Amino acid sequence: MRLAANRLPGCGFSKKARPICAVLLMHNRVRTCFVSLDGEIYAQRATDFPTELADASDAFRIVSTCVEETIASANLPILGIGVAVAGMINTETGSIGECQSRPIS
After folding, report:
1. Would you say residue 98 has pLDDT above 70?
2. Radius of gyration of the chain (CA)
3. pLDDT tens-digit map of 57-84
4. Is 3 in contact with 9 (CB distance < 8 Å)?
5. Which value, to the nearest 10 degrees, does the dihedral of the CA atoms of residues 8, 11, 14, 18 take?
6. Contact 31/44 with Cβ under 8 angstroms?
7. How far is it, in rounded angstroms, from Cα 20 to Cα 93?
8. Run of H or E residues at 73
9. C-alpha span between 79 and 12 (Å, rounded)
10. Which domains, ranges and CATH numbers included, belong to the chain?
11. Higher confidence at residue 56 or residue 30?
12. Count of CB atoms within 10 A of residue 38's CB?
């Protein structure tokens, strides 16, 4: 399957629906993407977390700035924000744990 540049496979959503900001949190960076529900990518950003980052409020500022810049660069009304985390979450500590690669069956 070949995709056009800046386009993801559509899911049959209305072309008039407002776009969302997708956020992917990883242990060393945050990636954001402003995308229509039909799959058109309007803007994207990525920011690395400093290796010496120790305060959760500093991490929050980095994430929120990345989201704000992504949304502002598209200048469109937003439907919402979705957040995904790469890896397993340790619910006791609130941290992202290591994730072993597993085959998809």
Report:
1. no
2. 16
3. 999 999 999 999 999 998 889 999 999 8
4. yes
5. -50
6. yes
7. 29
8. helix 56-74
9. 16
10. 20-97 (3.30.420.40)
11. 30
12. 17
